[in-house]
Structure prediction request, 339 residues.
Amino acid sequence: MAVPTVSVTLPCHDCAATVGRALESLLAQEGTDFEVVAVDDGSADGTGAILDGFARRDGRVRVLHREHRGVVHAANAAIEAARGRYLARMDADDECLPGRLAAQAGLLDNHPDIGLAGCRVRFGGDRRRSAGYARYVDWTNTLLTPEAIDLNRFVEFPVPNPSIMFRRECLEAHGPYRHGDFPEDYELLLRWLEAGVRMAKVDETLLVWNDPPDRLSRNHPRYDVEAFYRVKAAYLARWLQRNNPHHPDVRILGAGRTSRKRAERLLEHGVRFAAYHDVDPRKVGNTVHGVPVLDRSVLPAPGETFCVSYVASRGAREEIVEFLEARGYVLGRDFIAAA
Prediction:
């Protein structure tokens, strides 16, 4: 088989119930040449046999069988074996919609400055039972341009991992997934953005991102909320050092216990808090570890300080952005959102 344009990397573990549907959706793709590199990560169900069956049926499917070492090792094994100029990610419980691979490869072909291409995704779960996850998916679908992705990287993971396609050169320059007590997909994105990789999305819905109850991101400690904030703090602190003209001093928007706990991770990286700012009169006037809590109406003028918003409640982040922009603050120049 000639070297394909796209290699789809597919880590698999005990996914016999879903992997057939995922592979069928991939093999139905048209408009570009591709291979699927599936890694069976020591599955105890029928996953391996299903993968081998697809490989016998279609030469575009290559299967590697490995002892169970986890998704990071499986994903990197697939990446190492991939031969394509572009590498795409797919998870075994998701589905590609028609035209996904061709559209993302086309974006990379036509925009040599873009290193990683995503797409809009469709939430494949129960919107009532998983309302928070569904809202997150809706939010990611608003971030299409390199600027939007770049400036929202510290809010949440702005490019769903199963939807990505990237240039081999980015992988060679900045490395694959890393193993640690953090979400490996978010860490890779933060690392690549920090290195200057530009990311954009195809403005089409090209992937169904399913939400089964046993999804790894729901059950493994490295994907819990605090793990996200740990890895986020290290990258945000370095971003502030480069972009905050008042470094190491910042003002934190949000003085609630949860906001403070998450913001305080920045202190471990040398950031200093000039003040907390809040709208709750019960908090205003207090002092937390020597840092005053002030009303947000007394924020200095734009250019005199830098703010980091750590308020994560529904609608609050958007309201804070509107408030700051109405006062002349510019996202990325005078403030950044981190929750």
The chain is about 35% helix and 25% strand. The mean pLDDT is 95. The chain has two domains: 6-223, 243-337. The first strand starts at residue 6 and ends at 12.
